[in-house]
Amino acid sequence: MVSRKNGLFSVRSAYRLGLQPSLDLLSEGQSSAEPGGDRGIWNLVWKAKVPQKLRVFAWKAATSTLAVRSGLHHRMPKIDPTCIICGLEVEDGHHALIRCTLARALREEMRKIWTLPPESAFQINSKEWLLHLLSTSSPSIRAKIIFLLWRSWHLRNNIVHGDGKASVVASASFIANYLESFSSVNLARLDPKGKAAAPCEHQLPEGSVRLSNWTAPTEGQLKANVDAGWDVSTKKAGIGVIIRDHLGQVVECEWKFISRCASAEEAEVLACLQGLKSLIRLQAPYGILESDCLRTVKILECKVKDTSSCWSLYAEGHELLNLYQSISICKVDRASNGLAHGLAQLGKKGDSGSVRGSVPPPLAGLAENDCNWVDEPLVA
Ligand SMILES: [Zn+2]
């Protein structure tokens, strides 16, 4: 038996390709209830250390379900299947992601930054080329391959359907930074047993001691702390957003009055949305959003479909987080979210505003408590 019609990879085709050792390794610890199942080989994709969006992309690439011209031509023979970027070959998945001049250029650029498998490994063109490539690579190389192919696909679509402004060099540094940031966030979110989520990663400025639980993001990242206040009798609410950099310095603060809000939860989701939009507006490539509302964080983080009255707001949040995968969301304890809380209280009183580089004067005292980097005295 060869692989299934839809491109799914069967255990038997794994044998045929000599992949069984890697398959066995990947299946370790799993139930053997499905001896004929494909779970092991699909772990190459679903357990790859890459953002979920990239796994979905890799899965589409591995199942030949990316929208390439050869597939379109198959359904609509009038469509020319030739690649419109290089004009050299039929555009199938392997051409678009590996053989096309554009994909080659990005791979070449990436080789200046990353170690990748030899070119010959990329050129093996079978129906299962991607699973084969992934199965013969270590987990860290596997992640790099998925990042690389994902960006190749983006670059291609940007030229064919977008403004064509994405460049090979910028793409290379983008994915290098993205992978680095994703890996560091992931490491920090695992406790020593690799289970529960811990507070976001942090880096102390050199020569400083930390007095509060609030932690600064790593260099190159921005962190938005958000909070909301809601009055059950008047249904008025306020939301607050404070964005700080890796040194704990305030980039901007925002507080907003909301004249009518149905619930405390609605106000919390609105605060998260505001924080997300601010990170996106500031073009923070690797942003962290922190809220002290556990339910809201869980729903947004796990992309759970919500059926409460706030569902449309959550859906908007999911959409933004899907579009901006490099933004992560974390739960922070209340005591470490003091400034965002203070800003939300300002909003709740009926005021709206924003400041850059500092906090509004009524919160100056809070700023010292919440964001307290204290320089250690220099040793003489
Ligand atoms: Zn091409």
Features:
single chain, 380 residues, alpha/beta, Nucleotidyltransferase, domain 5, six-stranded mixed β-sheet, two-stranded antiparallel ribbon, 16 helices, 8 strands, 45% helix, 12% strand, elongated, disordered N terminus, disordered C terminus, binds zinc ion
Describe the structure in your own words.
- The protein has 380 residues and is of the alpha/beta class.
- The chain folds into 2 domains: 11-27 and 37-189, no CATH class; 214-372, Ribonuclease H-like superfamily/Ribonuclease H (Nucleotidyltransferase, domain 5, 2-Layer Sandwich).
- Helix content is 45%, strand content 12%.
- The protein has helices spanning 11-16, 20-27, 39-46, 52-62, 69-75, 93-99, 101-111, 119-123, 129-135, 139-160, 168-189, 264-281, 294-302, 311-323, 338-348, 364-370; strands at 208-210, 221-230, 237-244, 250-258, 286-291, 328-331, 353-356, 373-375.
- The strands form 2 sheets. A 6-stranded mixed beta sheet has the order 6-5-2-3-4-7.
- The chain is elongated, with a radius of gyration of 24 Å.
- Residues 1-37, 190-211 and 371-380 have low confidence and may be disordered.
- The site of zinc ion has 7 residues, from loops.
